[in-house]
Amino acid sequence: MHISVSHVSGILTLLTVGVMAFAQGTNSEKAGATVQTSGSGGVKYYSKDDLAASFAKGGTLVTETNYKVMTAHRTESGNVEVHRSYTDVFYIVQGSTNIVTGGKVIGEKATNPDEPRGDSIEGGETRKLSAGDAIVISAGVPHWMKDVEGTLLYFVVKVKNP
Question: pLDDT at position 110, please?
Fold first, then answer.
């Protein structure tokens, strides 16, 4: 399966709505609430309050057969991840982190054979990601968010490889 132009357009629209909502400020009073969407004809709309609630806990906004759009909330380093079937697209909305990509996974755990985790990466390339930055990580490439500064909020688009 392959992602169509209309799917890419929808993903970009969702990311733009989220970025604009956060640029205008958010209201976290709805933290923990289920994200409500409105729209028809393949369009989904999320208010800034809906996005704030989703970012407060992290969650999935859209799941289709060949992609997912998620919000993520992180305040500390995570585990190394390798996604065998999905390409990850991250767009940083708030905060910053170092991300290590490539290299060799140390302490790999195959809790999920399609998405093994690990303790650290040996080698690899470290980049600083901050609000407004984006990164695309192809399937099979180890990646590790570490040294999170502040509250890191980011969109994740997971695109299923054909």
Answer: 83
CB-CB contact of 103 with 121 (8 Å): yes
Residue 145 belongs to domain with CATH number: 2.60.120.10
Instruction: Name the 3-class secondary structure at 21.
Output: helix
**Is it the case that residue 82 has pLDDT exceeding 50?**
yes
Q: Exposed (0-12), middle (13-18) or buried (19+): which is 55, by Cβ within 10 Å? A: buried
Report the number of distinct structural domains present in the chain. Answer: 1
Alpha carbons 54 and 62: distance in angstroms, whole number: 12
Q: Would you state the pLDDT for residue 28?
A: 31
User: What average pLDDT is seen over the chain?
Assistant: 82
Structural domain harbouring 48? 5-160
